[in-house]
Every structure is written in C-alpha cells, then in structure tokens.
Amino acid sequence: MSESGMNIKPTSSDPGSSAKEIWIVYDGLCPFCSSYVLMYRIRQVVQKVHLIDARDTADPLVGELSQKGFDLNEGMAVKWDGRLYYGGDCMHVLALLASESTVFNRLNRWIFSRRHLARILYPILVFCRKCTLRMLGRPPIANL
Question: Strand 77-80's sheet: what is its strand order?
Fold first, then answer.
C-alpha cells in the first residue's frame, strides 16, 4: 500500500519535502531489519538518509504512519519526495533507488525492482521476522 503512485522521479511539488532526503522506518530490535538498513546503499540521487527506529514513539514520522493506519509490525516504511511507501511498495522504491555498488544491492535490486515480486515476497519476509522476534523474546512494535 502506498499513499500515492510509484512515480519516483526526483522532483518535488511539496515544499516541505526534499527528493534528496529519504526517511526509512524499520524495526530496530529486528536483526534482519537492522542489518538490511545498515548494508543497503542508495544511489547518489538521495543525499541524506534518515534511519528511524519504528519503536521510537516520540518520532513524528512514526506517529504519522500510525495515524494513517500503517501497522509497523506488518512492514517497514519509507518517506521520499513527500510520499509514504509501505511494505512491498517500500522495498520496491528502495530497490529502484539502490546503487549497484555491492552484491547485496544488486541482488536486492534485481528481486525487488519487480513490483509484483516485491508484493509477493514481502509477506514471507514479515512472517520470518515475526518468528525470529518471538524466538528472541522481543515484543511487537507498539502502534500508537
């Protein structure tokens, strides 16, 4: 689910947003999510990456996502160019913005740049994340 279409050209009609900055909301207690955002490299079109732990209830973007009905236990989110992307669409946008500097990025881009494949695979990743968190005794994210 995304708030708007998948046009991710670096232009912005929202004066409060910048296509040069991206906000990635992920689960900081999830070893997969944390590793993913640390290993990931984004193309130079994005100059500043803000990593936001979804468990930080004081963060305004976490509150905004909750208010709009996004369940952060079910998926990560990205805010880029004034738009919100969630779950499989989030992975798709990140794949399209990925650099090709590492094997991880090339593989990720190859898989998730296909929107339909991203939407099919993402729920499997979420299921694996939930199982891992349960095994590690980590609580779910508190949605506001």
Answer: 48-53, 21-26, 77-80, 83-86
